[in-house]
User: What shape does this take?
Amino acid sequence: MTRLMSPRARLAAAAVLLLAVGLGGGLLAGRWLPAAKAPTAASGDGRAVLYWYDPMVPDQHFDAPGKSPFMDMQLVPRYADEAGAAPGVRIDPSRIQALGVRFATARQGRLADDLTATAVVDFNQRDIAVVQVRAAGFVQRTYNRAPGDIIVAGAPLADLLVPDWGGAQTEYLAVRRSGDDRLIEAARQRLVLLGMPESLITSVERSGRPRTVITVTSPIGGVIRTLGVRSGMSVPAGATLAEINGLSTVWLNAAVPEALAGRLRTGQMVDVTLAAFPGERFTGRLTALLPEVAGESRTVTGRVELANRGGRLRPGMFGQIALGGGGTDALVVPSEAVIRTGTRTLVMLAEPGGRFRPAEVRIGREAAGQSEVLAGLAEGERVVASGQFLIDSEASLSGVEARPIGSPGAATAAAAPTVHQTTGRVEALTPGSITISHPPIASLNWPAMTMAFDLPDAARTRGLAVGDRVRLDFELKAGKATILRLTPVEARP
Assistant: This one.
C-alpha cells in the first residue's frame, strides 16, 4: 500500500533531486563546455566590475578596490558594460541635422604651391629730393606749404633774399659792359661758385639789373615729407629747406615667413591685392630681399616695386602678395575642419554609428581653403567640416580622449608630445619634483588627486612655496608626468 508523503517531505525530495541534476549537469558542462568567466565583483548599483585600475597606469589591473600603489589616489573600477563601448560621443541624428553639420573626407589632392604674405605700402626711398640753399639769406615767403602736401615738379617752396649776391651781380654787369670776353667769363663763373642757379644768372643778363631774391622750387613732384622754413627766419648756406618724396612708384614691403623665403627670387613678378581696392589685382616686381630676419616674427622683408598710376597707392595701405606655383600632392582636409586649441591641433572624426571623436593632427601648408595633413589622419576618414566646435564641447564634457597621432587608423608620422593643462595647490617641493593636488583632468580621464610631477628645471619653482596655487602644462610619458611650464595664478596672502 502506497503511503502518501507529507508536503514537507515532498519539498525535501524535490530539493535532493534538483541538487543531483545540477551536479550532473555541472560535471557534464565541465567536461564538454568551456567555463564562463564571471565578473570579479559588483558595484553598489549592481553594475558588474571587471577590474580596478589606476588612471595613471591603466594597463595595470587589480582584483579589488583600494589605494593605488603608484599614486595617492583610489583605484577606479572598469565596468563590464564599458568594455565593448566604442570611443567617442554619440549625438542624436536629429540634433546633427538641426545644427547643419557638414562632413568632409580626407583625400589625396593637389595642394596649390602658392606663397602668400601680408604687405604694407611704403614710400620709394630711392625717389627722394632734398632741397637746400646754396647761400645764406632770409626767408621772405613760404607759399603756405606744410608737410604732407602733394606738389608738382617746379612748385615754389619759398622766396629767399640773399644780400651777398647783389654786389657780385653788379660787378658782373659792369664787366659785361667792358666787352672783354675773358673777364666776362671769369665774372660769370664767380656767380656760379656763389651758388646762383643758371636761371637766375640768365635773368640778370637779360634784365641788366641785380636780383637778390630767388624762388626755391621743388625739383620733382610728390609729397612734402619735411619742411624746415618759416617766413622771416634766416637760413645758413647748405641748410635743408624741404624733403620731397616722389609718388610715381611705391614699395610694397611683404613679411615673408623665414621657412618660405628660399622660394623667392629677385626680379620675379608677383600678384598684389590691396584691401583698399577689393577685387582688383596689381602686378609688381620683387626688387630686393632684405638681408635681416625679424627676430620676433621670424620673417624676411621682400620689397616689391609697384607703379603708382594716378597716385592711388598710398603709403600705409595693407595688401597681400601671391606667388603661384605648380602644386604638390598631399592629404588634405578643408581648413574650416581644423580646430586649433593653442596647445594642439584637432579634427572631429565622424565614426560609424553616429559617434564622434576628436583626433590630433599635424597640419602643414594651407592654400585655397585646404590644409595639408602631415600626420594623425588616414585617407578616407570622415571629419566634421562645420559645427565641430559644438561637438568638441560635447566630447569634452563627456570626458572623451582625443585619438593621438600614430594610433591605428591615423597617419604613421611621429607624434608631437601631447600637452595637458591643469591648476592646483603646491603640497611639497623637492629639488627634482613638485607635489600638487589638482582637480579632475578631462584630457586624461584622471580624477582629483595629489601627485608628484617631475621638474627638470628647478629654477621654475623659484619664488613658490607650499600653499601656492599654480597653473601647469605637462606631458605624460611612460607613466611619468613631467612639467613643461609652471606659472603662479595668485600670490600668497
